[in-house]
Amino acid sequence: MKFDGIRWVWLDLDDTLIDFKVNSRAALRIVYDECDIQRFIPTADEWVETYEVHNHSLWDRYSRQEITQDFLRVDRFFTPLRQGWKGSADELVKFSWELDSIYLDRLARQKTLLPGAMELLDHLRAHNYNIGVLSNGFTEVQHAKLTNTGIGPKIDLVVLSDDIGVNKPDTRLYNHAMERAGDTDPSHHLMIGDNLSTDIRGALDSGWHAIHLDRSQNGTPEWAASYLVTHDLPSITAIFT
User: Fold this and answer.
1) Which residues pair with 134 in a beta bridge?
2) Secondary element (H or E) of residue 228
3) Closest alpha carbon to 236 in 111, 114, 110
4) What is the average per-residue pLDDT within 187-203?
5) Would you give the end-to-end CA distance of the chain in angstroms?
6) Is 41 a residue whose pLDDT tops 90?
7) What pLDDT band is residue 216 in, cutting at 50, 70 and 90?
8) Angle, in degrees to the nearest 10, between helices 89-109 and 139-149
């Protein structure tokens, strides 16, 4: 599959450029120790696993706009801790907000990128592509990640769901990205992302080209002929000349 006429290459941030799983687990273990989560959950491994399962479900719902951002940020801590909590629900809500603030701060400080991330960005820049980040992540955290990982200077434009209050795969976010880029021809835009239901579905619905970074190699849906599938960033780098 060739991508002729591409002027803007857009990348998801978490699990596409940044190794979110590694960084999140590091941040969660820091939170476990700093906030004495052992009072409620006996091991750090159980804490991380319980959080991840629930958080994944919440993000799926958030992407479908079934829940608010505030609900997600509180409930991802509230529900895992509820069984071991001895105080009132209001007190747990307050503690969950405290955990959210600490977790996001510690998460933003982590610096692990996926293999080949820097090389891909440098290659795109060398071949005169405009580079954008298109993410559903929270504004303050995503910008901090860009700074702390060192990839911020390599990005021309950052467009986040928080900018207009809608998430990928909503085509309004992709249209907003094109408007911000000053190029409203969908054929000039390509999305690279790890999530089929958000990154890729939204790009295709918006008339963009798309590359799915399928690191887990879980297979593809019936509409797979509409986009390219790769399994690592170096394979994507080799596409652009």
Assistant:
1) 159
2) strand 228-230
3) 114
4) 96
5) 14
6) yes
7) confident
8) 30
What secondary structure does DSSP assign to 23-61, as a single string?
A: HHHHHHHHHHHHTTGGGTSS-HHHHHHHHHHHHHHHHHH
Bridge partner list, 230: 213
CB 106 within 8 A of CB 27: yes
Query: Residue 154 phi/psi, 5° resolution?
Result: -90, -5
Residue with the larger pLDDT of the pair 64 and 110: 110
Work out the average pLDDT over 114-119: 97
What backbone torsions phi and psi does residue 229 show, to the nearest 5 degrees?
A: -115, 130
Residue entry with tokens 């963009």: 208
Q: 64-90: buried (b, 16+ CB within 10 Å) or exposed (e) per residue?
A: eeeeeeeebbbbbbbbbbeeebeeeee
- Structure tokens, 12: 């998801």
Token pair, residue 169, equals 């795969």
